[in-house]
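Support case: user asked for a sample of complex input and structure output to validate their parser. Sending the pair below.
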Amino acid sequence: MDTVSLTVDRRGELWARLAQVNDPELDEPVTEMGFVERAEVLQSGSVEVDFRLPTYWCSPNFAFLMLDGIREALDALTWAPAYTIRLHDHMFAEEINRGIAAGKSFSLIFDELSGDHDVETLRITFRMKAFKRRQEAVLLGLRRQGLTDCEILSMDLSSLDTARVGGEETEVQKVRYREAVMQRWPGRRGGDPAFVTWEGETIPSEALGAYLAGLRTLRINMEFNGALCRGLKTTRYKEMDVVDGEPTLVDFILDRVPPRECASRPARNLRR
Amino acid sequence: MYKTPDGKEIFVVDGHTHFWDGSPENQRNIHGKQFVDCFYAYHTALSPKDQLWPKEKFEKYTADDLYRDLFIEGPDDVAIVQSTYLKDFYKDGFNTIERNAEMAKRYPDRFIVNGSFDPRDGEKALEYIHFMKETYDIKGVKMYTAEWNGASRGWKLTDPQAYKCFELCEKLGIRNIHVHKGPTIIPLSKDAFDVHDVDHAATDFQNLNWIIEHCGLPRLDDFCWIAVQETNVYGGLAVALPFIHSRPRYFAEVIAELLFWLGPDKLLFGSDYAIWTPRWLVEKFWAFELPEDIARERGVELTSEVKEKILGLNAARLYDIDIAARKAAFAGSPSSVAAE
């Protein structure tokens, strides 16, 4: 294989891996959110990733979990490259980048910064949120298909696999819900119930309304962050200016934030 | 005064406004810059396009800008001005009570200036509460539990030192405690905007009103659960309301939850000026109707009566505002801004 196509393949693999890293609170891929500003495979094979969040104040918990997710994604690359991950313009960027550069494990950096919270607990909380959000989408989808609550709750995983849940987005959520179920209970089979609570309890059909109300408030919270993050991401580094008589948001540091494909960004010495 | 399309006059109390100085001259460090930049990002992300301000004006606007936006072009009758010090980020503070009171003195009937204190200052905080009461006769305070103070990155309403401050507020008749519980910011793991401390403080201080700004979003469920158990907990709609423009269905879900759990007497309008201006918010809110499925799901209604309570009557009750007297006073002496 020639170098060019090798690089192209590796770049494809890199982005595919990164696309599996979710924003833990929003349960959406970091690549979709536009947080990965640049991901580059250099000629030497080594990899550089630049990461930027919507605001300087974004919760360090979330920043941390995403960076850790990226680290795992890069560790899984088939050519096992050396890599650099940099977090930009965040209140803890310096500490985090210095920690990574010093070869510290993410949990060590995190422990130093957070004191009393461990990453694993946090990770489980967000897995629970993702599970519930995906489950709500599927449950509502099935209701919209005209199924009764009783029919929905008596479904097993195999029948869920073949069931139609509605639009494209809901179908995607069905697949992701399935993943969440298998991540939580790796031994589950087709004959096991499709819908149980995060604690593994069955949901009586007469209680589905109340159960869904609980899932809804969780979604409202997550969407609040999602909408803000998206909005802030779109407008960060932009100012209002009048262009052709119209108020318009103009990027005021055009030269500072290169587009995703741009390889010309100068690297700092934070390699590992 | 907001005049509805069918001619009804609605008394508007804007429960959450600011008169800040976030200009580069006043910024102490990078955090000061990033703080006002973040506010500006909120402004640009959620405002309608024709409401956008240039960055420079947003960083530091004049008292005349504020009068015009709130009372002349805007529908506010009375504005509650919140004080936020952030002295670790800004040389003269972001918006101190001195700055707010100076701005407010031209139209004393139009403003209620709230104070602020930091319980971590210990005895000094208590002295400062006395000072604010004596000097400005404050009726309320704004608490910012995520504020940095030296090495500390936040505090809780339940800290013993905070309780001493609230005891003093109660004694002095400073009854309205506005607490910022909003989007997740800092510190690292102990989420300073976690709402659970409200539960204890509201139980232990029954004579104080706890107005939770931003309704604890994104922890709406926790907030609703607490508010439903504590009769003295209220929700301020700042930040939630602007979604009415960019994501109306989402706003409908939020307001339906709030109406279901808290009811129409516990919600307060706030523009969060100058992040947003009140005119478009009030106009859109008045015109807003809950989608039928959401209203049915939660069994709630957003009628004109409910909107009128949220826009002014509820806050007027908390602050003892005599609406008839104020209306008469405003009719006699309309606000104006200095000639340009």
